C-alpha cells in the first residue's frame, strides 16, 4: 500500500486547467496551477471590491438607476485588450469600455438625480419620524387590512353553480293539536334560553359555561374561538323560525369565522359540527357564505389524509396541516367512528364544488376497509394509519364505532338508494353485530354490548342508544325483507334506553349502564352516572315516532324535556349534571354545542308534523344536520355536471 504523502510532489505533472479559451485569448490554456490560482485570487478580490463599492451606495440611488433604464452600467465587462490580466469589472458610474461610457453631461444628470432622490428619501424619513407611534401603527394596520381584504376577495370567489336538490319541507310543520303545539313551543323557548345566554356570555367562544357565565372550549376544537355553538345551532334556529338569531349567527360567521388559525382540531368533530352545520345552513337558507366557509374549512382538513394509507389522522393543525392521532388510542391508531364519519359531508362537498377530491378521499377509505379481514365479521374500533392494520380488537356500536355504521346506511339513503355498495356493507355489519353483540337481559331488556378481545361486555352507553333510530331507518330496504324485524329491534332499543332514564332519580339517562350481576339498565360506577345533555335517546324516540306514530314516543320525549328543563336549566343557560341518581345533583357547568344542534332539534321535530324535513328528502348527519338526498344518476356521484 503506498502512502500518498511520500510521493515526490514536484515530479508530478498536473493536468492543465481549462479556464476557457475565449476568456484568455492571449494565454495558453496550459498555465501551471499556482499561476492560475493567483490569477483567480486577483480576479475575485477585484470583483469583491466592485461589489462592495456598489453596496455602499445609498439604497435609493441603486434602485433608481434601474428605474432609469441604465441597467447597462452594471453589465459585467471583459476587457480583452489587457491580455486577460485585467479581466473583468462592473462598469460603475460610467467607467470602462467605450460603448458603455456616458458623456460628462449624462454623468452629471445621473449624479443630480441620485442626489435628489437621496434627499427626497431623507425628507420622507424625517416626516415619518415626526408621526406618533399610534399614527405609524394605524398606517401599518391599514396596509395589513388592505392585504387581508384582497385575500378575502380571492377566497370568496363564487363556486361553480350546481342544480340544487329539491328542498322540501324546510319550515312550518306546525301541529294542529294545541297540546302538541304547546310542547313544541316549550322546546323553542328552551332553545331561545340556550342561545340568548350563549349570545350574552359566550359569544364567539366554542361553548358556554352557563354557571360561570363565560366561554368554554374542549380540546376537540383546539385553542381557538371558532364559535362552535353558533355553527352547530344555525339550522335548529332556522327550522324553529328564530330568524333574527339566525341572521346574528350568519353575520358572525361572515365576519369572524377564520380557519387559518394555528389550532389543532379533531377532524371528525369539525366535520360533523362545522362542515355539517354549514352545509345544512346553506341548503336551508341558500346563503352562499355558508357554502364558501364549508369549502374553505374542508380544504384545511385535507392534509389530515396525508398518511401512508390515506386513513386520516384524528387531529390536524388548521394552519400547518400537521396531523397526529390521540395519545390514548390503541397502538397509534385512528378511530373507526372518526375516519368512518366523513362520507356524507364529503360527498356533498364534491357535489357542490365539482371537485372530486373530497369524494375520492372517502371512497378510498371505504375501499380499504372492504379489503380487510374482519374478526367475526366485526369492524374493530382501531386502525393504524401507517400500517393499515387493526389495533386492539374492540368493537362497539357506541363510542369509537357508532357513526361509522350510521354513515354506511345514510350514504345509501343520501344517494337516493343508488349507493348499493354502502347498503351491503351496512347489512353485513349489522348482521355480525346482531349475532355477537345484541342480547336480552334476564329482565327481558334488549341491549347492545361491546366486544373486547373475544368476550362480550354487558354494558351499553348512552351513545349506543342512537342505534334504535338507525335500525328503524334502515328497516326499509333491508336484506331478505326483514323490515319488520329491524323496526321491532329499534323499538326494543328505544324501550331499553327509556328504562335507563326511568330508573334514575332525575329521569335523565346515565352515560353508561350495565346488564350484569342483577343490575339492569343502571349505571354502577360513579364516573358513568353523568348526563351531559346528550341527544341519542331522544333521537331514537323521534325516528320511532316517524315510523310508527306510537304516542308513547312523544310521551317519553316530553318526560325528557321536562327533566332537562327542571334539572339542567340554570339562569345562564343549560348545564350537564354529574349524577342522575342524586336528588341534589351538581352541575358540570358546560352547555354542549350538540344540545342546540341535536337534543333540542330532535325534540322540536318530535312535536312537529312529519312534513317538516321529511325523511324521503333529507338525511340527518350524525350531529343532526339535515342534508338533502342527492338524486344521482349512478351509484356514486353525478349531481354535478363535472362528474358526468
Ligand atoms: C354528537 O356530537 C354526535 O352525535 C356524535 O356522533 C356523537 N355524540 C355526540 C353527542 O352525544
TrEMBL record:
Residues 149-179 are annotated as: Disordered. It is found in: Endomembrane system. Its main location: membrane. Its EC number is 3.2.1.-. It catalyses: N(4)-(alpha-D-Man-(1->2)-alpha-D-Man-(1->2)-alpha-D-Man-(1->3)-[alpha-D-Man-(1->3)-[alpha-D-Man-(1->2)-alpha-D-Man-(1->6)]-alpha-D-Man-(1->6)]-beta-D-Man-(1->4)-beta-D-GlcNAc-(1->4)-beta-D-GlcNAc)-L-asparaginyl-[protein] (N-glucan mannose isomer 8A1,2,3B1,3) + 3 H2O = N(4)-(alpha-D-Man-(1->3)-[alpha-D-Man-(1->3)-[alpha-D-Man-(1->6)]-alpha-D-Man-(1->6)]-beta-D-Man-(1->4)-beta-D-GlcNAc-(1->4)-beta-D-GlcNAc)-L-asparaginyl-[protein] (N-glucan mannose isomer 5A1,2) + 3 beta-D-mannose; N(4)-(alpha-D-Man-(1->2)-alpha-D-Man-(1->2)-alpha-D-Man-(1->3)-[alpha-D-Man-(1->2)-alpha-D-Man-(1->3)-[alpha-D-Man-(1->2)-alpha-D-Man-(1->6)]-alpha-D-Man-(1->6)]-beta-D-Man-(1->4)-beta-D-GlcNAc-(1->4)-beta-D-GlcNAc)-L-asparaginyl-[protein] (N-glucan mannose isomer 9A1,2,3B1,2,3) + 4 H2O = N(4)-(alpha-D-Man-(1->3)-[alpha-D-Man-(1->3)-[alpha-D-Man-(1->6)]-alpha-D-Man-(1->6)]-beta-D-Man-(1->4)-beta-D-GlcNAc-(1->4)-beta-D-GlcNAc)-L-asparaginyl-[protein] (N-glucan mannose isomer 5A1,2) + 4 beta-D-mannose. Ca(2+) binds at residue 622. Its cofactor is Ca(2+). GO terms for biological process: carbohydrate metabolic process. GO terms for molecular function: calcium ion binding; mannosyl-oligosaccharide 1,2-alpha-mannosidase activity. It is a single-pass type II membrane protein. The active site is at 269 (proton donor), 402, 511 (proton donor), 536. InterPro entries: 6hp_glycosidase-like_sf, Glyco_hydro_47, Glycosyl_Hydrolase_47, Seven-hairpin_glycosidases. Disulfide bonds join 465-497. Pathway: Protein modification; protein glycosylation. GO terms for cellular component: endoplasmic reticulum; extracellular exosome; Golgi membrane. It holds the Pfam family Glyco_hydro_47. Signal peptide: none annotated. The keyword DNA-binding does not apply. The chain crosses the membrane at residues 37-57. Keywords: Calcium, Disulfide bond, Glycosidase, Hydrolase, Membrane, Metal-binding, Signal-anchor, Transmembrane, Transmembrane helix. Belongs to the glycosyl hydrolase 47 family. Involved in the maturation of Asn-linked oligosaccharides. Progressively trim alpha-1,2-linked mannose residues from Man(9)GlcNAc(2) to produce Man(5)GlcNAc(2). This is alpha-1,2-Mannosidase.
Amino acid at each position: 500500500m503506498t502512502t500518498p504523502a511520500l510521493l515526490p510532489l514536484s515530479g508530478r505533472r498536473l493536468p492543465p486547467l481549462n479556464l476557457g479559451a475565449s476568456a484568455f485569448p492571449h494565454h495558453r490554456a496550459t498555465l501551471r496551477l499556482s499561476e492560475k490560482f493567483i490569477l483567480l485570487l486577483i480576479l475575485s478580490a477585484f470583483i469583491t471590491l466592485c461589489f462592495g463599492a456598489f453596496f455602499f451606495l445609498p439604497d435609493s440611488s441603486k434602485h433608481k438607476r434601474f428605474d432609469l433604464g441604465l441597467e447597462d452600467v452594471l453589465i459585467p465587462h471583459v476587457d480583452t485588450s489587457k491580455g486577460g490580466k485585467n479581466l473583468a469589472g462592473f462598469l460603475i458610474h460610467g467607467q470602462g469600455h467605450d460603448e458603455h461610457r456616458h458623456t460628462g453631461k449624462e454623468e452629471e444628470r445621473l449624479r443630480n438625480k441620485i442626489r435628489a432622490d437621496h434627499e427626497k428619501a431623507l425628507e420622507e424619513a424625517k416626516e415619518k419620524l415626526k408621526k406618533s407611534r399610534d399614527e405609524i401603527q394605524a398606517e401599518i394596520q391599514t396596509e395589513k387590512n388592505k392585504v387581508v381584504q384582497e385575500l378575502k376577495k380571492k377566497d370568496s370567489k363564487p363556486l361553480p353553480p350546481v342544480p340544487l336538490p329539491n328542498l322540501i319541507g324546510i319550515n312550518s310543520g306546525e301541529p294542529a293539536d294545541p297540546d302538541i303545539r304547546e310542547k313544541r313551543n316549550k322546546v323553542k323557548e328552551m332553545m331561545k334560553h340556550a342561545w340568548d345566554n350563549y349570545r350574552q356570555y359566550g359569544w364567539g367562544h366554542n361553548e358556554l359555561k352557563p354557571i360561570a357565565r363565560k366561554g368554554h372550549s374542549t380540546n376537540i376544537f383546539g385553542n381557538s374561538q371558532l364559535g362552535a355553538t353558533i355553527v352547530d345551532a344555525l339550522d335548529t334556529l332556522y327550522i324553529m323560525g328564530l330568524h333574527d338569531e339566525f341572521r346574528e349567527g350568519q353575520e358572525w360567521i361572515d365576519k369572524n369565522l377564520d380557519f387559518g388559525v394555528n389550532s389543532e382540531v379533531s377532524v371528525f368533530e369539525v366535520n360533523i359540527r362545522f362542515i355539517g352545520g354549514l352545509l345544512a345552513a346553506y341548503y336551508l337558507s341558500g346563503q352562499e357564505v355558508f357554502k364558501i366557509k364549508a369549502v374553505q374549512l374542508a380544504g384545511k382538513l385535507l392534509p389530515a389524509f396525508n398518511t401512508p394509507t390515506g386513513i386520516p389522522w384524528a387531529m390536524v393543525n388548521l394552519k400547518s396541516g400537521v396531523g397526529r392521532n390521540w395519545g390514548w388510542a390503541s397502538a397509534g391508531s385512528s378511530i373507526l367512528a372518526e375516519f368512518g364519519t366523513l362520507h356524507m359531508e364529503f360527498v356533498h362537498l364534491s357535489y357542490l364544488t365539482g371537485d372530486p377530491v373530497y369524494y375520492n378521499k372517502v371512497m378510498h377509505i371505504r375501499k380499504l376497509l372492504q379489503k380487510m379481514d374482519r374478526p367475526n365479521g366485526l369492524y374493530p374500533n382501531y386502525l393504524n394509519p401507517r400500517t393499515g392494520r387493526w389495533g386492539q380488537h374492540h368493537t362497539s356500536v357506541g363510542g369509537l364505532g357508532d357513526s361509522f355504521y350510521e354513515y354506511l346506511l345514510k350514504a345509501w339513503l343520501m344517494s337516493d338508494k343508488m349507493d348499493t355498495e354502502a347498503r351491503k356493507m351496512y347489512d353485513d355489519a349489522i348482521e355480525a353485530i346482531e349475532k355477537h353483540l345484541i342480547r336480552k337481559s334476564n329482565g327481558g331488556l334488549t341491549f347492545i354490548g361491546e366486544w373486547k378481545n373475544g368476550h362480550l361486555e354487558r354494558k351499553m352507553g348512552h351513545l349506543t342508544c342512537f342505534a334504535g333510530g338507525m335500525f328503524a331507518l334502515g328497516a326499509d330496504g333491508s336484506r331478505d325483507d326483514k323490515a319488520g324485524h329491524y323496526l321491532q329491534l329499534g323499538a326494543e332499543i328505544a324501550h331499553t334506553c327509556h328504562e335507563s332514564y326511568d330508573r334514575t332519580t332525575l329521569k335523565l339517562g346515565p352515560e353508561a349502564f350495565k346488564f350484569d350481576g342483577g343490575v339492569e339498565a343502571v349505571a354502577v360506577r360513579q364516573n358513568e352516572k353523568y348526563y351531559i345533555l346528550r341527544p341519542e335517546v331522544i333521537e331514537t324516540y323521534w325516528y320511532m315516532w316517524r315510523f310508527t306514530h306510537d304516542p308513547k314516543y312523544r310521551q317519553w320525549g316530553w318526560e325528557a324535556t321536562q327533566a332537562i328543563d327542571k334539572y339542567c336549566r340554570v339562569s345562564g343557560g343549560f348545564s350537564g349534571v354529574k349524577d342522575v341518581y342524586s336528588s341534589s345533583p351538581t352541575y358540570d357547568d358546560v352547555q354542549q354545542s350538540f344540545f342546540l344542534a341535536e337534543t333540542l332539534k330532535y325534540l322540536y321535530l318530535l312535536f312537529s308534523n312529519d312534513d317538516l324535513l321529511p325523511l324521503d328528502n333529507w338525511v340527518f348527519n350524525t350531529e343532526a344536520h339535515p342534508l338533502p338526498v342527492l338524486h344521482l344518476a349512478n351509484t356514486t356521484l353525478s349531481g354535478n355536471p363535472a362528474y358526468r
